[in-house]
Design a protein that fits this description.
Helices cover 65% and strands 9% of the residues. The strands form 2 sheets. Strands 6-7-8-3-9-10 form a 6-stranded mixed β-sheet, with helices on both faces. The chain has a 4-stranded antiparallel β-sheet with strand order 2-1-4-5, covered by helices on one side. Helix 1 packs across helix 9.
Length: 619
């Protein structure tokens, strides 16, 4: 229950709406409670009229009209409260979803390294759906019912306090019996959610890589894997439901006995003359009114347990530690729209400095005794030290897994160093807000990583405020303008998820145009041409030359043709710097680069190709 209260605390802006729903619930309860009194009066009036002491038909008709007015009022107020509850529920869903997404955007890269995308999405949908559904149901139905219950018990106590006491005693008894099932039920529900998360995560992976699945004829295996997890949820549900309903038989059977005693007492006291016929009818209606919440309590408890489990899953994510730089940019976002909006404005408002902050002659990028290791994997980088001067092109060469891509990730602030120091533009990265740091670095990955939407939106992804002429100019310089105009819709052409409607070369040129438009002073290239054919490679390389002009460039090298044109080469071995020098200097040093040049001459042999592949070099 604490988790549910915390949800309401997060959505404090909805408290006025919730207060209005409570008020409507009170009115619904009031009109509902008026009905038994009107029926009591009508019953007494009919009995009196039969003996000649009553007001006859006119009096009964007035009571029937009053009953109509009360019923109509109850209908209108119930629907007004329902409307308020529906709007509040969707607003709550929007707030929780926004905060969840905003939180995910501020989480460190490590979190996404260990979580499946489908699991993250499944957790969002399940936890928020269960929570909002329960709160909506509670506001629209359970709250008026609980108010009616308290009032009904008070009225019953007016006529017979010990009868009311007997009824009050059944609620803690029912709650105790329900609590006996709660712990086991939640344990099974958590196990089911885990199966759903695994299945959902795999589902997203398969859909995202459906061509790979089809090419390996893996559809039956993937379907069996997916079905297996859902079959396990069926087994868990059978156990969970059987246990719950066995306990429900005990709970409701106990209540049936209690209500038998209550009805027997009311009937006996009426026959003995202690209650009039009207009072008997009133008490029976009030007892039924008080019985309804108990009969609905199983569903209410079931829904609340799902909501509590969902809240816990939600706050597992919300309690994750965010990136330190992101925290400074968007503190307080969990509290609602203001914080999230402030964080977004802070990130969007960061612009690349027009003047360098580093003093002339100082390195723009400087690693000093840098150490880093992924969680539980040991150190990938061990005491790495080098610098990159403004406007310099530096290539990184080494076997797979020596830390070349890790250096780029550290430069982007995706991971913090575990030791040593990294300075960018004269400042320690620990003192630079992450949005500002990343605004200074443009990246073209080996995978272009485009988004669904139009070509224009993808080129302007780093600068959504860019005007048309700037977008077109970036596309021209990336040698993408020609093929864009040939597409139906031109710059407004929809490219599909991850740019699936474009060829590899077209996607890379869009990625180059995106980096050109960002116009960051530091550029990281995870060689974008390694997976392209010769023609596409030539066009993309021309765009990259435009991109690298007058820019500090760090190249994760995959082709010797790219390496030979850089200012310096940094070779890495076992997570350490092996050599640093110009291509000419390292060509005769006998080190990794010299070895690669020698292997290039023997690349036509099987051994030569294998050795080049070890260094991820394509020749």
């Amino acid at each position: 229950m604490r988790a549910l209260l915390r949800i309401l605390g997060v959505a404090r802006e909805l408290l006025p709406a919730y207060a209005a729903i409570v008020a409507s619930g009170v009115l619904v309860a009031g009109t509902g409670l008026a009905v038994p009194f009107i029926i009591k009066a009508a019953t007494d009036e009919v009995v009196a009229s039969m003996t000649g002491a009553g007001g006859g038909v006119p009096a009964v008709l007035w009571l029937a009209f009053l009953l109509l007015v009360v019923d109509l009022a109850n209908t209108v107020i119930t629907n007004v409260g329902g409307y308020l509850g529906d709007v509040m529920a969707i607003r709550l869903r929007a707030i929780l979803s926004r905060n969840y997404f905003e939180k995910l955007l501020r989480l460190p890269q490590r979190y996404f390294d260990s979580e499946l995308t489908g699991t993250i999405i499944s957790r969002l949908q399940r936890s928020i759906t269960e929570t909002t559904n329960f709160l909506n149901m509670f506001a629209n139905s359970a709250l008026p019912m609980l108010i009616s219950l308290v009032a009904a018990l008070a009225i019953i106590a007016w006529y017979s306090w010990w009868l009311a006491l007997l009824m009050v005693a059944m609620y803690p008894l029912f709650t105790w019996l329900t609590a006996l099932t709660s712990r086991r039920w939640q344990k099974l529900e958590t196990a089911k959610n885990l199966e759903f998360d695994i299945a959902g995560g795999r589902f997203a992976e398969v859909v995202g890589q459906i061509r790979v699945v089809k090419s390996f004829v893996a559809e039956p295996r993937e379907l069996a894997h997916f079905t297996g997890h859902y079959d396990h949820t069926i087994t868990l549900t059978r156990e969970q439901s059987a246990f719950w309903h066995r306990m429900d038989v005990v709970r409701r059977g106990t209540l049936n006995v209690i209500f038998f005693v209550i009805y027997a007492i009311i009937f006996s006291l009426t026959i003995s003359g202690q209650f009039t016929l009207g009072v008997m009818v009133l008490l029976i209606q009030l007892v039924n009114l008080a019985r309804q919440p108990v009969q609905s309590m199983s569903f209410l408890v079931d829904s609340s347990q799902r909501a509590i489990t969902g809240c816990r899953d939600y706050f597992i994510v919300m309690d994750e530690e965010v990136e330190s730089g992101a925290l400074r940019q968007a503190q307080g976002a969990e509290g609602g729209a203001q914080g999230a909006e402030g964080g977004a404005q802070g990130a969007a408002g960061v612009r690349t400095p027009t003047e360098p902050l580093a003093a002339p002659g100082e390195p723009i990028v400087e690693f000093t005794d840098a150490r880093f290791g992924y969680t539980g994997d040991g150190e990938v980088l061990r005491g790495v030290s080098f610098d990159v001067r403004r406007g310099e092109r530096v290539a990184f060469v080494g076997e797979s897994g020596v830390g070349k891509t890790t250096l780029a990730s550290l430069l982007l602030g995706l991971y913090p160093l575990t030791g040593g120091r990294l300075r960018v533009d004269g400042r320690d990265v620990g003192g630079i807000p992450l949005p500002e740091l990343r605004a200074q670095v443009g990246v073209v990955f080996q995978d272009p990583s485009l988004f669904s939407g139009t070509i224009r939106e993808n080129i302007a992804y780093g600068r959504p405020d860019a005007i048309e002429d700037e977008i077109v100019e970036a596309a021209r310089r990336a040698h993408a303008h020609g093929f864009i105009l040939s597409l139906p819709g031109g710059y407004d052409a929809e490219i599909g998820e991850r740019g699936v409607r474009l060829s590899g070369g077209q996607k890379q040129r869009i990625a180059v145009a995106r980096a050109l438009l960002k116009d960051a002073p530091i550029l990281v290239l995870d060689e974008a041409t390694s997976s392209l054919d010769s023609k596409a490679e030539r066009l993309v390389q021309e765009g990259l030359e435009e991109l690298m002009a007058d820019r500090t460039t760090l190249i994760i090298a995959h082709r010797l043709s790219t390496i030979s044109s850089v200012d310096r080469i940094v070779t890495l071995r076992d997570g350490r710097i092996d050599e640093i020098g110009t291509p000419a200097e390292l060509a005769g040093s006998g080190g990794i680069y010299a070895e690669l040049l020698a292997l290039q001459a023997t690349a036509k042999t099987k051994a030569g190709r294998k050795r080049l592949q070890k260094y991820e070099i394509l020749g």
